[in-house]
Amino acid sequence: MKNSIVLIGFMGSGKTTFGKILSERHHYQFMDTDDLIMKKENMPITEIFKTKGEDYFRQLETDVLKELTHKNDKMILSTGGGMILKQENVALMKSIGTVVYLKASPHTLANRLKNDTTRPLLKGKNKFLFIKDLLAKRKDYYEKGADVIIKTDEKNIQDILKEIEGYL
Ligand code: S3P
């Protein structure tokens, strides 16, 4: 039987990239909570943060997760990096599928995000220091919320894909 996978992890951990590749390869539906929120609000995430605030965005995250729990199709779901902050969200994600944490170091994440302009939380910050601090605050949430932890530093893409595939 097919199993749905919910990918969690910090911004830049590869949730969307790996999720898209795997869903095409295995004919799963690909879903991304940020995309669903942007469609719902008809504006980019940066704009939602700017005009409506982070709390409003966090409520939308829970709303879209709730909607996804009603879907019967097996899916690979990429979630926003802050999705694990609410216990309610963790329970919803676990009801959707196996929760896989793509773990990466601040160094790796800062490198992947160095040219990013789409993440409001990173705007105007020293990326490495900001990521290091925020990751330290969120580390336990990711690790406790996960069913499986996959370390991605210094691994090639194919090896990471293979590890995730073990849970499909
Ligand atoms: C956020 C991560 C982003 C997006 C928003 C907030 C966070 O998603 O949901 O900018 O709090 O870590 P990605 O992890 O897909 O970048």
From TrEMBL:
The gene is aroK. One of its GO terms (molecular function) is shikimate kinase activity. Its cofactor is Mg(2+). Binds 1 Mg(2+) ion per subunit. It is an enzyme of class 2 (transferase). The lineage of its organism: Bacteria, Bacillati, Bacillota, Clostridia, Lachnospirales. Keywords: Amino-acid biosynthesis, Aromatic amino acid biosynthesis, ATP-binding, Cytoplasm, Kinase, Magnesium, Metal-binding, Nucleotide-binding, Transferase. It is found in: Cytoplasm. This is Shikimate kinase.
